[in-house]
Specification:
With about 140 residues, this protein is mainly alpha-helical. It has helices spanning about 5-15, 20-35, 75-90, 95-100, 115-140, and strands at about 55-65, 65-75. It has one domain (about 5-140): Sufe protein. Chain: A (Alpha-Beta Complex), CATH 3.90.1010.
Length: about 140
Amino acid sequence: MISVEEKIKYYKENLELFDDDMDKYKYLLDQAKKAKPFPEEFRQDSFKVDGCQAQVWLVPYMQDNKLCFHSDSDAFISKGMVTILSEIYGDRKPDEITNSNFDLLTSLKLDTLLTPGRRNGVYSMLMKIKEYGKVYAESK
């Protein structure tokens, strides 16, 4: 299984292929288009991520003792980001998520690409993922 660090490195290398910020935005939009369909029954306030300018839903579920996520947003850039984060941190044991070095994400250099409001949203998504990891790790 590919580690969190290796997944972050994969996205970092992909983003570094683009010199232009517009191309990086297009990459985020492509990630949004590749997202798995979101089950409509989860489009509830209880699964919304607070602190995002757009509406973002992040739904945890366990599969084969691993924490996975359904995710969606009503804005394509946010959807691309939550898709990438779900891809990086999903399908892992809950303690692997909580023990991850969340600072590694700064290596993606999205802070230069995203507006302050979107950066706060990404931070909120990360904190939600970490919170879900903690909840599921403690429920064992």
